[in-house]
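ok trying again, last paste got cut off:
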Amino acid sequence: MRTLRSATHWWGRARCLSVLRHDRCWQHDGVAFLGFSYTPPTPYWLKDFERLDREGDPLPETGGTFWDVSAECTAKAAAGPIFSNRPTLAQELEGSARCGQPWIFVCHPPPYDTHLDRLPHVVYPVGSKAVRLFIEERQPLCTLHGHIHESPDVTGDYRDQIGETLSVNPGQSDTRLRAVVFDANDPAGTMRHSVYS
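nice, full thing came through this time. structure:
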């Protein structure tokens, strides 16, 4: 019990953990961070963090399955009722906080039509157009993405440039951990991509 209390005290004092949100900026060591966890719909389970990318986008062709909390079981759902009651990614991003420079955007889905949004055996980009427009307009210092884990293997690159912004998706696999390490004051000049097996 003493160890747990010490660990809790250490974590609380050091502030080593912060949940990044899109409605407020988090400051650390002179750099602001903004987070964004919503994603476009996937062809698998419907998730509470999925949104249509932009207004007027077609609904997913199939519905999905979600966890019904009240019934404590999975339930089928049609796409229409689920997505018509949720704002789009573009609308969510429109309401994002504005951070002062320099700032880093930590965003689950990668921007559309980059080295970061390609799947194997799919010939078209699958990233978010709303996220790309947000990056083009706001020009953060750097953006960090995931979601499309295979993309660096498909494109041969884990980074791309959108205007002045360096965008990164380190990728992931079942057998190897991938990560990027960089100095937040100079992401482009210090970025290192590592793969651990």
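cool. The helical segments are 2-14, 79-84, 89-94, 129-138, 151-155, 187-190. The CA atoms of residues 51 and 86 lie 7 Å apart.
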